[in-house]
Specification:
The chain is of the alpha+beta class. It is 30% helix and 26% strand. Strands 4-3-5-6-7-8-9-10 form an eight-stranded mixed β-sheet, sandwiched between helices. It has a five-stranded mixed β-sheet with strand order 12-11-13-15-14, with helices on both faces. Strands 1-2 form a two-stranded antiparallel sheet. The chain is globular and about 50 Å long.
């Protein structure tokens, strides 16, 4: 979509993600105040300020669209056809202890699919961008390259954070004890959905998580990037993503996906 002589949705996502990333970068190392959200979760001043910077861009460019922000919550009609999903700082726990493993996620769900999304790395200044059809990496020097998935690294990122709606049948942590997993892959846990974008870019062979991803501010951008780049993306049960609380396997290629899906199912069988 474009407005008259205005930016496309992908361009809006890009501008919003960059605005949020600039705030995250500027406040890094300042020991920002923590705002308790319960159950061990919290937001920092950087989360709040980055989200406000993103919302400013969205309000200016797409004032009629609905928005769901991780910190500010939802605005607009509940059944809005167009809804922006905003995760201003994914990796807050990392950021709060001066670890530069975070991402800024902005995605537009238009009807039943995400049609534009950006994930920005505030510190490398790279941005992963999709218009829902193609996917690109924008470098800090202005270069643009296509995202190309690859299983070559054998690195699989696992999300070990709760909730675990499929437990005890499935737990990502069980993959660590599976001899088939350790024989083929090497686990990584970076605790930010920046790693989902890395699958699209060939920096990870796959990403695995439990959870309900429907309208997820954390995962919508990364899943859209992987799908546009040609990754194999399903739930841990093999069904399409967003069809329930069925988690995610985002894999660089069919062989990697099939191997991880088999391991996930084997773990489920072992728990019966």
């Amino acid at each position: 979509m474009t407005t008259t002589n205005g930016p496309t949705d992908a361009e809006v996502a890009l501008a919003a993600a960059r605005a949020g990333a600039a705030v995250v970068r500027a406040l890094y190392g300042s020991a920002p105040e923590r705002h308790d959200k319960g159950n061990g979760d919290f937001a920092t001043a950087a989360d709040l300020a980055a989200e406000e910077a993103i919302l400013h861009v969205l309000r200016a460019s797409r004032p009629d669209d609905a928005v769901t922000g991780e910190e500010a919550g939802a605005t607009g009609a509940v059944d809005a056809g167009r809804r922006w999903l905003v995760d201003p700082l994914c990796g807050t726990l990392n950021y709060a202890v001066d670890t530069m493993l975070v991402g800024v996620n902005v995605a537009l769900r238009d009807g039943g699919r995400v049609t534009a999304a950006a994930t920005a790395d505030p510190f490398s200044r790279e941005v992963y961008l999709t218009d829902g059809t193609s996917a690109h990496l924008l470098g800090p020097d202005g270069t643009q390259t296509d995202l190309t998935p690859s299983p070559a690294s054998c690195l699989v990122d696992l999300n070990l954070d709760p909730p675990f709606p499929n437990a005890p049948a499935f737990r990502a942590a069980l993959l660590l004890a599976d001899p088939a997993f350790t024989a083929r892959f090497r686990p990584r846990v970076v605790s930010t959905t920046l790693a989902v974008a890395w699958v699209a870019a060939g920096r990870r062979a796959a990403y695995v998580t439990d959870g309900d991803l429907r309208d997820s501010v954390h995962f919508a951008a990364g899943v859209a990037l992987c799908q546009a780049a040609g990754c194999v993306v399903t739930g841990v049960d093999g069904r399409p993503p967003y069809t329930g609380a069925n988690g995610l396997i985002a894999a660089s290629d069919p062989d990697t996906h099939e191997a991880l899906l088999t391991m996930a199912r084997s773990g489920a069988l072992a728990q019966r």
